Amino acid sequence: MRHIISILIENESGALSRVAGLFSARGYNIESLTVAPTEDPSLSRMTLVTRGSDDIIEQITKQLNKLIDVVKLIDLADSVHIERELMMVKIKTTEHTREEIRGMAAIFRGKIIDVTPTTYVVEMTGPSSKLDAFIAGIDGGTIIEVVRSGPTGISRGEKGLHL
Amino acid sequence: MELNGAQIVIQSLKDEGVEYIFGYPGGAVLHLYDAIFQQDDVKHILVRHEQGATHAADGYARATGKPGVVLVTSGPGATNAVTGIATAYMDSIPMVIISGQVPSPVIGSDAFQEVDMVGITRPCVKHNFLVKDVTKLAETIKKAFYVATTGRPGPVVVDVPKDITDPGIKVPYKYPKKVSIRSYNPAVTGHKGQIKKAVDLLLTAQKPIIYSGGGVVLGEASKELTEFAHTLGFPVTNTLMGLGAYPATDKQFVGMLGMHGTYEANMAMHESDVIIAIGARFDDRVTGKLDEFCPHAQIIHIDVDPASISKTVKVAIPIVGEVKPVLEQMLEIIRENKKKPSKKALENWWNQIEQWRSVKCLEYDRESRLIKPQYVIEQLYEVTKGDAYITSDVGQHQMWAAQYYPFDKPRRWINSGGLGTMGFGLPAAIGVKLAFPDSEVACVTGDASIQMCIQELSTALQYKTPIKIINLNNSYMGMVRQWQEFSYESRYSHSYMDTIPEFVKLAEAYGHVGMRIDKPEEVRPALEEAFAMKDRTVFLDILTDRTENVYPMIEAGKGHHDMTLRVASGTSTDRELA
Ligand SMILES: Cc1cc2nc3c(=O)[nH]c(=O)nc-3n(C[C@H](O)[C@H](O)[C@H](O)COP(=O)(O)OP(=O)(O)OC[C@H]3O[C@@H](n4cnc5c(N)ncnc54)[C@H](O)[C@@H]3O)c2cc1C
Ligand SMILES: Cc1ncc(C[n+]2csc(CCOP(=O)(O)OP(=O)(O)O)c2C)c(N)n1
Ligand SMILES: [Mg+2]
Questions:
Q1: Cα B473 to ligand 3 centre (Å)
Q2: Which end of chain B is more exposed for a tag (fewer CB within 10 A), N or C?
Q3: What global pTM score does this model have?
Q4: What is the whole-number distance in angstroms between the Cα of residue B394 and the centre of ligand 2?
Q5: How many whole angstroms from its chain centre is CA A76?
Q6: Minimal Cα–Cα distance from A120 to chain B, Å?
């Protein structure tokens, strides 16, 4: 099953490679990884998407917790949560296709954030599946570039991951 | 007090109570060596190869329970230390390794003798640090010792760029008495509810067994384990790393389990209905084929590292905590409990175990005209009255030492189990002898293993650490040969060295005593003579039966009940080898 693991980690050089190294050394798969400092500059927040059986996910969380730099983590799949990913897509346009792309972007609540005579850049956020759907909905031949941040997530309600 | 970085390192070690540093100098650590020169509280042991430094520090740590300390230079010094760091990591041995690094401003420029030590060691340390600020140096060293010695112990690397130890830069020094790390809080006591559940299960068991391991040694809990076992009357088996944690001569001890464990230990595991694993990690050498592992048992597991629990074998009752307090908690509940283990069930169980014992799986041919390696170990046991520190290398000799030298005390059996590092035995013995100069220390080794760190014979002379090297010389990488015999139709591919040095001359060249023994009747007198030479390192090159194999053996991919016994295979004495 797919799991989103959210980690508070010391904002120190090398911390990221400890996490990445753990995954490669133990043969766990890593679908995506995002990381940025938090409002507390000594901490970073990392969101990691992985897949595995319950036993493997249990080992992954235990092994992550064992890293000295990891302060806390939660498996978002254990609770109700919101998931978002940012995507930017650069699309080749012609006079005929512009209208259609704008329409598609609107349906998916995307924004056109850059325009040249021959291209659009569409910005879109949402659960990864929605972004996949958008990509599937436009002509693959017209896509110049897709940039995705990888999902990040937060749990619903009063609970939160903090010190 | 104002000190420069180099002085801070040495003063911190002193304040930490460090007795010995095992090291080797080089450019990046010259400031540190100058600081070492100017004091004599912390004694430096100059090895002949950085791998030797790590194993010697490791042997010191395993024998004393105190962290071993290593100092190496950047680049090749650092990479040479990696095997020893990984060895300590796999067996959870507390160690602090200080490695020199190129000056901070040139890090990343492929400077002379630069390697990314933090990167290289990341997968084989408990934690590592790159020091970036001399004012944080003392605190970083304190943290390194704190992490290395608490929770599940392990090696910690502190990588120190040369500019940090610059003698020209002095900063105020204060060694912290305590440090805390917000993200690191290892468990100590166990969860009460879980402990209660575990006791309830133990008291209803019909065929229980205690499977204990290195965690009992590391956690200084031999006394508690022994009391626990005696209170319940259950059989005890130990892993290779746990030997000595429970007295091997006690009647409740059924021997080591696993690949080369006893018939009775493995059968008892296989047939048991309740297993309590105490500081043991279900290693593959122990479990054999996982699908067939202990099919009838409910398992309780005490371990300080949650990641050790249910890693390979799912357990019913996990208890995260240190062995010693958890066993104390359990004993208290057991004593208060009116329910006692079923006498009847235990009696039946012990009768069954006695039957397995009567197979005498460790018997061997005592009439042989050749020296049997097992016989050598038995004689070693007698000559040292079972009270020596025995280090070992890796191979058949290691298994025979484990099987035929019954250890009654923890920290006496010192070997590389998890990584299985050939070359470990000799330097480890030096570390042990430094810690316990008045005790007998012997290194049981093989003709191949001993050559991997043989240079440390020179260290043994310089620091006057008189150890006895028992070389079970079968002119083979015996363990490799055995696998080739069993699994590759005796195609002995490169498990034989055409040229083996004359070890007697070699020992003499290094300034020690060498003895060559090739008849069974010479073994005992030679051992006595060697141990009588209190102040000499003696190398006993003992020519043993080349065809001897380690039994019992659970071959790869088999279950505990599927052991190959010597009786089934016949004695191997007169079989000719290539
Ligand atoms: C040639 C060869 C053959 C081998 N054959 C065998 C064999 O037949 N049988 C065998 O048993 N081994 C054998 N081994 C060794 C094997 O590879 C493992 O090293 C060994 O089985 C592991 O022992 P252990 O489970 O006691 O764990 P250790 O590696 O000693 O780990 C200790 C465990 O205890 C935990 N722990 C540490 N401190 C504490 C504490 N204070 N409180 C609670 N828990 C703690 C740790 O987290 C860890 O899980 C062999 C090795 C070699 C090289
Ligand atoms: C550094 C290293 N290289 C290779 C091995 C694989 N290996 C395990 S046992 C062994 C042979 C050991 O031979 P010897 O020291 O003569 O011991 P014996 O088995 O003959 O008693 C080898 C090569 C190892 N454990 N360590
Ligand atoms: Mg050999």
A1: 5
A2: C
A3: 0.97
A4: 5
A5: 13
A6: 40
